[in-house]
């Protein structure tokens, strides 16, 4: 059986490998021509600036896993998050080279990253929120959006059933439902909601002058999630006080 400390070392190492990826492989998104139906400026993909969120994600995960190794290596509460987080980060470390050659496998892998990141988030303890739950929340929140986008790109790119616009609606719907479920568990921190909303606002910017309907739907989704989050937090606080 792997010890707590060994898991802490492995997770920190995986976080380093994950964060090093962009310095090794320059990835500016899927090649539009990697699909049978080229995906030029797809409405399901947020505006380019939105992807800058990866910078804080990488840095915060490094800080979190580093702190976990040097200050919480033997903490059983932290230990519960490490197996799924290790899997997610290890997959993330190889995701860029896979995405360069295969959108299909990249989609499979990013969903695996999301599922394991969400499991890790659900296992986070109450203590050390800003050093554990918050960074995992930001990571899982962006993956919620990114995995949904990957489905739409694949569907539209392979001409499956719907148009690009319909696939964009599907993207928003998938991300919204996953985020809503996570918020209702009361284990999703504000950073998780922020990351999903950040992606949705990126869709607003991407589509506001070309497909206003998608922009409006994304805006409503972002506002609704934020409102639901605040409502759940208030009810939780009222319950604690009572």
Instruction: For the record, give the distance between the C-alpha atoms at the N and C termini, rounded to a whole number.
Output: 43 Å
Q: What percent of residues are in strands?
A: under 5%
Mean pLDDT: 93
Low-confidence stretches: none
Total number of helices: 9
Structural class: mainly alpha
H/E element string?
HHHHHHHHH
The largest sheet is:
none
Global Rg = 18 Å
Instruction: Give the helix level as a range of percent.
Output: over 70%
Query: How many domain modules?
Result: 1
Q: Please report the total strand number as a whole number.
A: 0
Gross morphology: globular
Descriptors:
242 residues, mainly alpha, 9 helices, 73% helix
What does this protein look like?
It contains 9 helices and no strands. It is mainly α and 242 residues long. It has one domain (4-26, 44-237). Helix 4 runs antiparallel to helix 5 (103-122) and helix 8 runs antiparallel to helix 9. It is globular.
List the helices and strands and how they pair.
Elements: H1 4-24, H2 54-71, H3 76-79, H4 82-101, H5 103-122, H6 133-157, H7 164-184, H8 190-207, H9 212-241
Helix pairs in contact: 1-2, 1-4, 2-6, 4-5, 5-6, 6-7, 6-8, 7-8, 7-9, 8-9
């Amino acid at each position: 059986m792997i010890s707590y400390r060994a898991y802490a070392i492995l997770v920190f190492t995986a976080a380093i490998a994950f964060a090093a990826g962009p310095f090794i492989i320059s990835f500016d998104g899927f090649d539009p021509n990697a699909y049978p139906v080229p995906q030029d400026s797809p409405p399901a993909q947020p505006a380019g600036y939105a992807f800058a969120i990866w910078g804080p994600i990488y840095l915060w995960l490094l800080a979190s896993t580093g702190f976990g190794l040097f200050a919480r290596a033997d903490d059983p509460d932290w230990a519960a998050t490490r197996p799924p987080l290790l899997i997610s980060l290890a997959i993330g470390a190889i995701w860029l080279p896979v995405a360069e050659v295969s959108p299909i496998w990249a989609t499979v892998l990013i969903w695996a990253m999301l599922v394991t990141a969400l499991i890790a988030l659900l296992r986070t303890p109450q203590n050390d929120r800003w050093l554990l739950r918050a960074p995992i929340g930001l990571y899982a929140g962006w993956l919620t959006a990114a995995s949904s986008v990957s489905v739409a790109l694949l569907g539209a790119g392979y001409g499956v059933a719907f148009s690009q616009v319909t696939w964009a609606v599907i993207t928003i719907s998938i991300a919204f439902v996953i985020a809503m479920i996570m918020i209702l568990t009361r284990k999703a921190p504000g950073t998780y909601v922020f990351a999903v909303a950040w992606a949705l606002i990126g869709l607003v910017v991407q589509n506001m002058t070309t497909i206003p309907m998608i922009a409006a739907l994304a805006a409503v989704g972002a506002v609704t999630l934020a409102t639901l989050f605040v409502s759940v937090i208030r009810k939780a606080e009222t319950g604690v006080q009572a």
